[in-house]
Design brief:
Layout: H1 2-8, E1 14-19, E2 22-26, H2 32-45, H3 65-78
Antiparallel strand pairs: 1-2
Length: 79
């Protein structure tokens, strides 16, 4: 899945494997609206796989990785 998503994103974007079924996307120079657009496209590409997404934008949703991850987890649990 990591390679599939990486091919769909820009060269400056990163897909990080956090666990067997948990990925993080690092999208530099992307605001909240841009992230929402990317998530919508990713949901179309992996619709049959049942993936869920929890966007978190730096620094609006957290000042470090731990805070951003917590925000993203909360967003996923609400979806």
């Amino acid at each position: 899945m990591k390679r599939l998503l990486q091919k769909k994103l820009r060269e400056i974007d990163e897909v990080l494997m956090l666990d067997d079924n948990l990925l993080a996307l690092v999208l530099p120079l992307t605001d909240k609206e841009g992230a929402a657009t990317i998530i919508k496209k990713l949901q179309e590409w992996v619709a049959e796989k049942g993936w869920r997404f929890g966007p978190a934008v730096y620094p609006e949703n957290g000042g470090n990785g731990k805070e951003l991850f917590g925000y993203a987890q909360t967003a996923i649990s609400r979806s």
